[in-house]
Amino acid sequence: MYAQYESALAALDSTPPARARTSASASASARPPSDQRSASLRRELLSTRYALAVAATHYRTLQRFQQLGPDASRAQVKSAIPAWIMPEDAVYAYGARHTDATTRPFDVLIIADAHLLDVSALGLLAQAQTVVLFGDPHLVGVRDGLLARSDVLSDAVERFHTEHLEGKVAFSASCASRCSLYDMVASALGTGAHTRLTLSTRPAELLTYANTQAYHGQIQATRAASARATSAREASARDQSACMVSYRVPDTAREENAVTALIHACMESGAYDGKTFGIVSLGDGAYTTRLRETLRAHFDPATYTDQQLLCGPAHMFQSQTRDVLILSCGQDARAVRRRSVRSSLALRELATATCSATEQLWVVHAFDPRRNLAFDDVRVPLFRMLSANLSASPSALPASIRARVTQILEPRTSASHEGQHSAGVSMEDIADSLGDMLL
Predict the structure, then answer these.
(1) What tens digit of pLDDT does each residue of 69-78 get?
(2) CATH superfamily of 204-438
């Protein structure tokens, strides 16, 4: 069969381009083929050649699999499958070079993080015979308006929707500028199969909040004893702290310095060699800007590169992971009492942040969760979880890290707040709050 493919390809290679053949007896009476007929023959030959080439490629792939056997390594299997990993613009560039109008550029196209792509990515659906989308509606995405590429693009999307989609496409109502590609396809076709999340390299403690609050127990930590997951635990016995730490400071100005001090202390500790750091800001834009400026004043560009230091709001950590993640709340007690956080966006932000930490999650805050948070604030379960975890107390920090934080912060601040453990909100507190409301 393979020999037949090769001979057919060789015969096509030797065929003159779209020239009709006539017998010698009929050559005098027959009219030469028109240019249109020649072009049609040429297209048929090219289409047949392409189909044979695809079949030959699949045949060779099958042969390689049979030669590898069931004990083939991951690298061998990967080399046997004609597959590519490319960004969105490369997919379009590859499709532009595809000249056969009867077939699609790809047999199968897998789109990862489809909840981060907006309506401008609809063209990806036409690039393959079969398209598989992976998206996570529980995390921050296009729907939150935080990932818009530009105002110009948003205006162009709205014009495209009005002129070409509205009233002409069944799911045009889903093609708004704040709808993700995942939402559009789910609205038109249904969500399809659900995959169970398996974050096997995370310690179970780091997944508790997101698993219970956003994913309803769908996350599984199947390999909690893996080398990456246990590296923090093994180092904890020597010089590194537990998987979760809650650290309280007097105000948001000290909170910025505390974040910097914690990163300094970790970098000076041998247990954190080669670790990556991220800082998720839950404060407003002004606080996030101040936090970034404070970090830039203390760390040079080489440190940013070596430690992959990333600071910003939660949506910047989509598809990003860091070994050590510091969650900076960015609100003092007065701001927390004045505005409780109950939105679904805040819940998705916290889920994004907690899922981005692979070894440690540190929560730095300038308020007392027990006294200041309303009972229905989405942050209450996070601090309740920290309160239940005895190893999350700052008193459990190694002496070297506590000393470094004390050195950077004001002595009286560190002395008065070191060892304070952020208490969670108990059921009794919730009952008291409900009683006050009824009264």
Answers:
(1) 666 666 666 6
(2) P-loop containing nucleotide triphosphate hydrolases (3.40.50.300)
